[in-house]
Amino acid sequence: MLPIAEKDRRFWDKTAESYAESPIADEDTYQKKLELTRKYLTPESEVFEFGCGTGSTAILHAPHAKHILATDVSENMLKIARQRAEDADVKNITFKQAGIEDYDAGDREFDVVLGLNIIHLCKEPLAVMQKVNSLLKPGGYFIQSTACLSSSMPYIRPVLPLMRLFGKAPHVSMFSSKKLRGYLPGAGFSIAEDFVPGGRSAEFIVAKKVARISTGP
Ligand SMILES: C[S@@+](CC[C@H](N)C(=O)[O-])C[C@H]1O[C@@H](n2cnc3c(N)ncnc32)[C@H](O)[C@@H]1O
């Protein structure tokens, strides 16, 4: 799998400050997603998050898990995340710079992987989900919140290349709700919970690892 483009990494670094200041678009939906996620966390849970951004969600989940390894490709996002965790006196999160595409966990396996508002920003959504499979213990859960832009905002397709040309948007993968769910069996998952808030809100899926997918050569 190709690593994230340097141009995209820079986009996220530049965006970190404003991202940190932007309010949550729909607080009720956010709270419901937190609540659904917690059904899958226990005090023993080893959690991996990719694209953790400024760490806000990891910080809220940290008291419900044993440890969260929160990763992001942007060092500027992580700088804010580390400060936020320190301010909140949260000590069971480790922040690490990594793109999901080239992250190497060695033999480490997790109970839960969180990918929140990130799959649609990856060039190869299926390959990323297969990678997530390799990071999970058998029976572990992949919890994602993903914008299905072909369903919710199809009109942005022609605008995106221009925005990208002028550095105003990162890479975005356009796919429908149906296509997103269609990726899951090929990545070794079956859907355990499905929440579609409607409007422009990202769709929320809890998927259980039901098969081991080999991502090696
Ligand atoms: C839309 S933000 C979401 C942040 C956070 N998960 C949330 O829900 O608020 C996307 C984040 O993913 C990071 N990111 C983008 N592509 C990535 C990749 N390929 N691997 C790891 N992180 C990535 C960006 O730096 C950014 O912090």
Strand content: 15-25%
| Topology pattern, helix = H, strand = E | HHEHEHEEHEHHHEE
Q: State the name of the first-level CATH class.
A: Alpha Beta
How are strands sequenced across the largest beta sheet?
Answer: 3-2-1-4-5-7-6
- What is the CATH topology assignment? Rossmann fold
Helix content: 25-40%
Name of the CATH homologous superfamily? Vaccinia Virus protein VP39
Strand segment tally = 7
Biggest β-sheet description = 7 strands, mixed
Structural category is: alpha/beta
What gyration radius follows from the Cα positions, in whole Å? 16 Å
Instruction: State mean pLDDT (0 to 100 scale).
Output: 96
- Count of individual domains: 1
- CATH architectural category: 3-Layer(aba) Sandwich
Give the uncertain stretches in residue-range form.
none
Which ligands does the model contain, each kind named once?
Answer: S-adenosylmethionine
Q: Work out the oligomeric state of the chains in this entry.
A: single chain
Tally of DSSP helical segments: 8
Shape: globular
